[in-house]
Amino acid sequence: MKKIFIDGHSGTTGLEIQARLEARPDLRLLLLSEGDRKNPQAKAKMAAQADLVILCLPDEAAKEAVNLYQGLGTKILDASSAHRVDPGWVYGLPELAPGQREKIAQAQRVANPGCYPTGFLLALAPLVRAGLVPQDYPVTIQAVSGYSGGGRQMIEEYERPQGEAYALRVYGLDLKHKHLPEMAAYSGLNRPPIFVPSVANFRQGMLVMVPLDPNRLNLKGAQPQARVLEVWSQAYGTEGFIRPVVGAQLLDPKFLQATSLNGTNQVELAAYGHQDQLLLVARLDNLGKGASGAAVQNLNLMLGCEETTGL
């Protein structure tokens, strides 16, 4: 039986991961008391007993934890954004590119992806890799997430009695959102995209939207949607969690719902538009494939378990 220590299990992502793991008979969760959860000695002792530590901490605290666990030989899966572009860590998106799953399975240190980058990279990276989208294309991203993506403070802000019900809030207006480095690093683009995120008054769910001009793509005479779906199908044809949607199966015909995949580890990809305009859309649960579901998937790979266990 493998032993798992969740460092930061009382946060939003930590609680979600714990809920997904605690019923599994092949795992034993090691949990600190509330009084010990910030005690370095207690944390190090618990980590030394574990086969794998999951960090569900703010970025700086995650870096401190990695230093604390240095030399223990324990595998580490970091759910923060602290190590996502660190060359000493493997990026934890198994479907990113051929060979990525094997890198995760062999790694001692894996960085769980961000929720927005997961949708963006799954939609765009194979198109860049196939030469359909030029590497110098000026990509823009518009995205909306449920308020759970903001963590406990934002959840309380939206759910407290008589709280103000914000319909939609756009943020990251300095265009320096913390997810941008991983978007730039793993997309295959040679310039960072412009990223405009927003949060709306629903708890969880996410849409990531990337508009493209077909006239600037290398379509080789093909119809834009058909060519995109062809590349996606080649990239994800054997993937259980990624679903390129074709033809009449397009996500929603008129009003696209952000919440349809809540509670799953699935991502749906669709291409809307016509000969002169194209819109890529990724739909996922920001707490599922965008956070805790991805962590469980990576944990399974790192421990040699069946990848879909618990998902």
TrEMBL record:
Keyword annotations from UniProtKB, A to Z:
Amino-acid biosynthesis, Arginine biosynthesis, Cytoplasm, NADP, Oxidoreductase
Single GO MF descriptor: NAD binding
Xref: SUPFAM superfamilies: Glyceraldehyde-3-phosphate dehydrogenase-like, C-terminal domain, NAD(P)-binding Rossmann-fold domains
Catalyzed reactions per annotation: N-acetyl-L-glutamate 5-semialdehyde + phosphate + NADP(+) = N-acetyl-L-glutamyl 5-phosphate + NADPH + H(+)
Instruction: Please report the stretch or stretches of sequence annotated as the Semialdehyde dehydrogenase NAD-binding domain.
Output: 3-104
Transcription regulation as UniProt keyword: no
Which residue spans adopt a coiled-coil conformation according to this UniProt entry? none
Q: Where is the active site?
A: C115
Name the CDD domains for this protein.
AGPR_2_C
State the compartments where it is located: Cytoplasm
Q: Say if the entry is tagged with keyword Magnesium.
A: no
Q: What is its EC number?
A: 1.2.1.38
* The protein's annotated pathway: Amino-acid biosynthesis; L-arginine biosynthesis; N(2)-acetyl-L-ornithine from L-glutamate: step 3/4
Any one biological process term the GO annotation gives: L-arginine biosynthetic process
Q: What is one cellular component GO term in this UniProt entry?
A: cytoplasm
Tell me, what does this protein do in biology?
Answer: Catalyzes the NADPH-dependent reduction of N-acetyl-5-glutamyl phosphate to yield N-acetyl-L-glutamate 5-semialdehyde.
Q: State the family it belongs to.
A: Belongs to the NAGSA dehydrogenase family. Type 2 subfamily.
Q: How is this protein named in the record?
A: N-acetyl-gamma-glutamyl-phosphate reductase
